[in-house]
Structures are given as structure tokens and as C-alpha cells.
Amino acid sequence: MAKSSTLCFLFFLLFIVSLGKLLTITEAKNCLMTWDCTTVERCWDDCKSRYGGKGLCDLIPTPFVPKQCLCSYKC
Fold this sequence. Notes:
The protein is α+β, with helices and mostly antiparallel strands and about 80 residues long. It has helices at about 1-25, 40-50; strands at about 30-35, 55, 70-75. It starts with a helix and ends with a strand.
């Protein structure tokens, strides 16, 4: 009886470990896409419609570089 319960416990642990590895493999990653930004609203709308993400224009653009729309989304 004790031998079979030990075997069942080991199979249960093996199942949990394999399930945990499967779940970590399938999690989504965050991607970032950029393009020239005209307005904050346009950036937000374009990012939402193209990629289903959240977009934001540069708050402090660098000199000689146009403002960029930064779009973060799950890929």
C-alpha cells in the first residue's frame, strides 16, 4: 500500500512539474514598435488598431529626431 501511494505521489509531482514548464513556454512577450508621432491621440489610436497595444508619444524628444510613437503590445 505504501509503495503504490509513493508511486502515485511521484507521478503527481512529475505531472505538476511538466505542467509548470508548459505554462512558462506559452506566455506572451512584450514587443515594442515605433513610428513618427503626430499627436498623442493619433499614436494611441494607431497602436490600438494595428497591434492591440498601448501607444505613447515621446514626452521629451531628442534634438534633430522627430517625435516617436512608442507602441507596446503582446507578440
